[in-house]
Specification:
Strand content: 15-25%
Number of strands: 5
Strand order of the largest sheet: 3-2-1-4-5
CATH topology of one domain: Nucleotidyltransferase, domain 5
Order of helices and strands: HHEEEHEHE
Helix content: 40-55%
Shape: elongated
Length: 140
């Protein structure tokens, strides 16, 4: 559709809007470069610090009991350490471990393709024996 203009009216470019946009871009780039310069200056002010290790913390980690490792395979097969076990055998061994040292940590190594129900079942066995220091990790 054509717009008819009178003979004395010429098309104009809106310079005010164009000047506003250019001013906004100029301010944006000025602010962005000033933040970058402050980051570079701050990095120069920091010195690397090495914190000393406490002797008590080193002794406590070496004296801590080795964790009970329970493995869960892809199909839900259970391992106590590296030895395959049944569910009843796992329950007995957890009972023995809880009687010997109730605060002993437990690490559950679950296959990433196993059902979550298998992991929850082992967690329930640990909770039944009041062994709450549990960590979990996945394996391929």
């Amino acid at each position: 559709m054509r717009i008819k203009l009178d003979d004395d009216e010429q098309p104009e470019i809106g310079l005010i809007a164009l000047i506003d946009c250019i001013f906004f871009l100029l301010m944006f780039f000025m602010v962005a470069t000033s933040f970058k310069q402050k980051d570079a200056q701050m990095k120069e002010k920091y010195q690397p610090i090495e914190l000393p290790a406490s002797q008590a913390s080193l002794d406590s980690t070496s004296a801590a009991a080795a964790p009970v490792v329970i493995g869960i395979g892809k199909e839900g097969d259970l391992y106590y350490g590296d030895e395959p076990v049944s569910l009843s055998t796992l329950r007995e061994r957890l009972h023995e471990a809880a009687a010997a040292n109730p605060g002993r940590p437990i690490r559950i190594d679950g296959d990433r393709r196993t059902s979550y129900q298998n992991i929850v079942h082992v967690l329930d066995l640990c909770q039944f024996e009041h062994m709450n220091n549990i960590s979990m990790r996945t394996r391929n």
